[in-house]
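Title: Comparing notes on inverse folding

I've been comparing how different people in this forum approach sequence design from structure. To keep things fair, I'm posting one structure and asking everyone to reply with a full sequence. Here's the target:
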């Protein structure tokens, strides 16, 4: 209640000089076949509806303040926990309606662009999250260069569940609180009128699992004035020098994605994406070496119905070498008033 009252106290002053308050309503439906981790997903369907309310101030002495509230209707029918006896139990929740608050402050000057963001789950949830993000970026126009960094800290809780250690065969409880810190830097370089490249190294520190590091690159080619091709390549890998995470081995992930973005008019644009991802997990005790390949493709449309009404449509199909398949589709409407 105190958090909600604090949110209301912030909303009221900002409403006096808000520039473009907006409401976003989005819905997504996912159908799945096969099994993945602790979800019994054969032939299941789930849906989620989210309504977001956003309010932004005008520029006040180089500062911009934003506040948002998300109302989500979630479906946890496919989520299970494991008790001490090893039996799977459906996840029980008091309510499927959840609320999440977002606050951010932006500062723009000749020294660069600073952003501070915070996210907090206000209602009861099986997976509440608190997150803070600080980022900085700077444009060097004479060199066609933009660089910066981002630091984030997050904490997420989860229901109590148990697992069997693949080496000792003892039953233990999983961590119910996961803390992580992420640090990443990036650099974007304009190579010519048509080409641009971006590099992005990342490091993640986890309290309940091995730390990880990763690197990604992105090439952009504007082959037409209204169309561009993007190529994204990256990897993520856990440090092998640290202890294992619960009943898992060490993870590695590699991915490649191609995007084709096209502006059909001033009001409608589309994005076609094709990608593949390879995830591996080292052997550990009775747990064998795991290797999962994921291929996916998707299509998004965004457009303006009017000067104050925006819409978006999206769809994505994924399948793995283990027989798991998923189809996600949905849309959103944004009303700026």
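Reply #1:
Here's my take.
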């Amino acid at each position: 209640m105190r958090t909600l009252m604090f949110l209301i106290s912030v909303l009221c002053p900002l409403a006096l000089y808000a520039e473009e308050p907006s409401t976003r309503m989005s819905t997504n439906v996912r159908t799945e076949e096969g099994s993945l981790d602790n979800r019994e997903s054969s032939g299941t369907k789930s849906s989620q509806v989210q309504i977001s309310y956003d309010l932004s101030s005008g520029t006040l002495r180089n500062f911009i303040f934003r506040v948002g509230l998300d109302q989500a209707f979630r479906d946890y029918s496919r989520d299970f926990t494991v008790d001490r006896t090893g039996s799977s139990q459906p996840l029980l929740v008091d309510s499927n309606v959840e609320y999440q608050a977002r606050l951010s402050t932006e500062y723009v000057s000749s020294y660069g662009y600073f952003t501070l963001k915070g996210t907090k789950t206000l209602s009861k949830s099986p997976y509440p999250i608190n997150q803070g993000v600080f980022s900085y970026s700077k444009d060097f126009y004479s060199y066609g260069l933009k660089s910066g960094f981002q630091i984030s800290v997050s904490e997420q809780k989860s229901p109590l569940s148990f697992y069997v250690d693949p080496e000792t065969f003892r039953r233990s409880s999983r961590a119910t609180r996961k803390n992580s810190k992420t640090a990443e830097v990036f650099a974007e370089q304009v190579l010519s009128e048509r080409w641009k490249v971006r590099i992005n190294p990342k490091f993640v520190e986890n309290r309940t699992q091995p730390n990880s590091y990763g690197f990604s690159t992105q090439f952009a080619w504007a082959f037409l004035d209204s169309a561009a091709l993007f190529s994204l390549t990256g990897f993520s890998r856990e440090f092998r020098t640290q202890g294992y995470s619960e009943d898992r081995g060490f993870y590695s992930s590699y991915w490649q994605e191609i995007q084709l973005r096209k502006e059909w008019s001033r009001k409608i644009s589309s994005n076609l994406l094709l990608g593949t991802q390879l995830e591996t997990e080292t052997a550990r005790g009775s747990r064998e070496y795991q290797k999962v390949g994921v291929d996916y493709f998707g299509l998004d449309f965004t457009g303006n119905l009017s000067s104050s009404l925006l819409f978006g449509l999206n769809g994505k199909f994924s399948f793995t070498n283990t027989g798991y398949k998923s189809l996600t589709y949905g849309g959103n409407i944004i009303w700026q008033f």
